[in-house]
Amino acid sequence: MEKSVETIRGDSEGIAYEFALYRISGTSSEAPSAYIQAALHGDELPGVVAIDALMPKLRKAENEGRVRGNVTIVPRANPIGANQLLFGASQGRFDLGTRVNYNRDFPLLDRPDTALLPGDEVPMSSDRRLKARLLKLSLGHDIVLDLHCDDEGVAYLYVPDELWPAMADCAANMGVDAVILWSGQSGSSFDEASLHPYLKMPRKEARLESRVVTTVEYRGVSDVYATVAEADAQGLYRLLVARGVIEDTWIETQKTFAGVVAPIDHIEMVPAPCAGAILYHVNPGDTVKAGAHIATIVRAAGEDGGRVEVLAPQDGFILTRRSHRATRAGDDLVKLVGVAPSSDARTGALEA
């Protein structure tokens, strides 16, 4: 395993950011290659610890000559966001200089050619420089995994429509609970930018049936535990074995996914009707009926009528909920995967 350090020039003289990059050269030029990154949102750590637990498995496979395809790993993909603090609280989702989400506005290329990406000599902000570098590192890999997490939630994948159901084995082997299918535009997110060049090519040449591109949501931001990280690492390893990147006859892989699968327009982003304290009546992973109590908002503590009930708009599956317990009017409380399209379905990305 070869380690190198990537440097991203900052926006002021004397400022630069670094992140570690690990590469394993596979033994077969015909085997699929894999790229895995975590913490594109700098304060999301479940994917970081999953990669930490995965690395010993990769080193063992390499030492035993079982890594067939090239593997590239970026454990912490966003040193800029990781170093943004406001009054001691991490602010890793948006660049404080440009106010742009770190998982938006990636370059959309017409073909998978790194020469189309801007070089370091081009005058641009450091967050755009980082995005160009990450896309350059990932381009050309058959498997591209972007590890994120939600506020509080189950483990789930965002999968492009064009890659489903061919990616069902990936969801099964990773052990996630749900798959959300999307199409069209998602704000030029990393997964959209990773797939976009191949959608411009003839399908046979693009090899979409064997391509893997997904955003992995590893539960909630606080789900950083050794046992969970080990289970997630085992799922990542099982996926690499199933797809032929790693050879391991001791690993039993899966082909059929039995979890929840729904298009993105089935997601109900249930808003808070008023400001107040949130009392949740459901947990991520629960199945609810239309009209079920999802939450109570304590609008005016101790007053008659000071509580407002929030009800499920349709039958469905609770995918996520907010980790904070204070809400403003209109803030989203939960993502509910409905059995039917939402009457208020959002286009593009669900959240900024």
TrEMBL record:
What organism is the protein native to?
Aminobacter ciceronei
**Which superkingdom, per the lineage?**
Bacteria
What Pfam family is a match for this entry? AstE_AspA_cat
Q: Which InterPro entries does the annotation name?
A: AstE_AspA_cat, N-alpha-Ac-DABA_deacetylase
Keywords (alphabetical) are:
Hydrolase, Metal-binding, Zinc
* Entry cofactors: Zn(2+)
Which intervals hold domain Succinylglutamate desuccinylase/Aspartoacylase catalytic?
A: 31-240
Q: Which SUPFAM superfamilies does the record cross-reference, listed alphabetically?
A: Zn-dependent exopeptidases (SSF53187)
Q: Protein name, please?
A: Succinylglutamate desuccinylase/Aspartoacylase catalytic domain-containing protein
